[in-house]
Amino acid sequence: MKRYIAWLLLVLFLAAFGRNAAAEQKVVSILHVNDFHGFAEPYRPFGSEDFLGGIAALAFEVDRIRAQGPTLLVSAGDMIQGNNWANLFFGESVVELMNEMRFDAMALGNHEFDFGLDVLRKRISEAQFPVLGANVEGLDLIRPYVVKEIQGVRIAFIGLVTEDVPVTTHPRNVPGLSFLPVVSSVEKNLELLRGKADIVIVLSHIGHAADRDLAAKVTGLTAIIGGHSHTRVLQPVVINNTIVLQAWEHGKALGRLDLYVEDLKVVRAEGRLIDIRPLPETPDTAVTRLVKKYSERVDARLDEPVGEALVDLDGENVRSRETNLGNFITDIIRKTAMTDAAIIGGGSIRTSIKKGKILMKHVYAVSPFNNYVVGVRLTGRQIREALEHGLSAIEDGAGRFPQVSGMSFAYSRTAAVGARIRDLTIAGRPAEADREYTVATDDFLAAGGDGYKAFGEAVRSSKDFTNVGGTLKGEKLVYSNSGKWERDVIIDYIREVKQVSPVVEGRIREVKD
């Protein structure tokens, strides 16, 4: 009897211990970045005198948090292209940096494709972390998801990229690839992960508004860590029991998501942003040495003065209004192509230039894409259609927002999409729907990039149209110089005039209906 009672007490003790152990709360921190675009060094955004960002400071913060407890570090895409620190090395510098910082996973962003598939495959093969794209078909080396086990908790990350990749990068960069609907892709992989993961997080490069929509449509997600829209989400939202986050851009903030887990279930989730500022004293670490190594190589190639800016050139607000830098660039390409007007997407302008000496590297940072100047014949109706498209997603800060030269217009953002333009003038006169005008742009828009169908349809309708190796030809093209990048055209102009001081002239005016 005594032996039976002792055995019973032991069973009860072990059962109680098991319940307590199962109920033990674990905390896992998920650190995240997005839209880094190779901005390894601190910089001053337009209108600010304070330096922000700096990957050495961000890496220091990551290490500090790692020392406190279980931590994973992930990216929601657009890492390897953008700043000279990345572009001059086709993203190799960024992958080396991410390896050094021990990233756990990364989702593809649309700009990962900008150097073409051969380069992208090389970068993926160099990465010591999985690169994810659950809705991408036709690209080897990537995975739809990865499962990381930490403290006995299995955390799955599903990667997503915008379905619009074929129009947000040059079509020549994505031959043979398919970009599937995001909702069905997530649902498919959730089913595949059944029994393999306790927590599922989406690393999403589709934009904050689309992330919110995804959270509303799909159940079973703990979090959506986003990118693409460069949104500074200070207060994460919870939709359908899914927390939706995003960590701004350029390494100016580090996102932190703390998951409190009991019995392999998340009982509480807290998300916030940690502002990143340059460290008072730069520590001698592998990351700082790596940043310095590539920065010195950039300076050796591009630290050459080309002219002087007498005013700050605004590249920060090009997705929402007319800016002096937008005017400056469109004026240059209109003059180069000798056309009536010019239109470019604001998203092609990637940063500002501060008042003072202009170095070659500043222009390369403003215009990092390998695009060249094209002149196209368009009717007044087609130009209006193009501008309407450019204004169709102004609420989302889309890169299609137009910067223009040789034309002016007013618009109402509260009007229906497709009917926002007011008072369009071209070459100083009201636009005539059936009259043909010449319009300068870049080969990206001329090929229909960023959804500019009016350009793409006009070019493809050209007699004797060809597109060989990305070089456009046809009778609707009045100018096409694929032998010189747009940034070099800009540099040549600055060298010629020596000093620049463009202004905002009222080419684009917002009105209220």
Characterise the protein shown here.
This protein is an alpha/beta fold. The protein has two domains: 23-292, Purple Acid Phosphatase, chain A, domain 2; 304-510, 5'-Nucleotidase, C-terminal domain (5'-nucleotidase,  domain 2, Alpha-Beta Complex), CATH 3.90.780. The chain is 30% helix and 28% strand. A six-stranded mixed β-sheet has the order 4-3-2-1-13-14, covered by helices on one side. Strand 21 (421-426) and strand 22 (429-430) form a beta hairpin. Helix 11 packs across helix 15 (486-497). The protein is globular, with a radius of gyration of 25 Å.
Helix count equals 15
Number of domains: 2
Q: What shape does the CA trace take?
A: globular
The largest pleated sheet is described as: 6 strands, mixed
CATH superfamily of the largest domain: Metallo-dependent phosphatases
Distance between the termini: 91 Å
Low-confidence runs: 1-22
Tags for this entry?
15 helices, 513 residues, 6-stranded mixed β-sheet, alpha/beta, disordered N terminus, 28% strand, 5'-nucleotidase,  domain 2, Purple Acid Phosphatase, chain A, domain 2, globular
Structure at a glance:
By secondary structure, the protein is of the alpha/beta class. The protein is 30% helix and 28% strand.
Task: Annotate the secondary structure layout.
Layout lengths: L1 H21 L3 E8 L21 H12 L4 E5 L8 H4 L4 H10 L3 E3 L9 H10 L4 E2 L3 E2 L7 E6 L2 E9 L3 H4 L9 E2 L2 H11 L6 E7 L2 H10 L5 E4 L10 E3 L2 E5 L6 E10 L2 E11 L10 H17 L2 E5 L14 H14 L3 E5 L10 E4 H7 L5 E8 H11 L11 E4 L1 E5 L9 E6 L2 E2 L5 E7 H4 L6 H8 L5 E3 L2 E3 L3 E9 H12 L1 E2 L7 E3 L3
Helix pairs in contact: 4-9, 9-11, 10-15, 11-15, 12-14
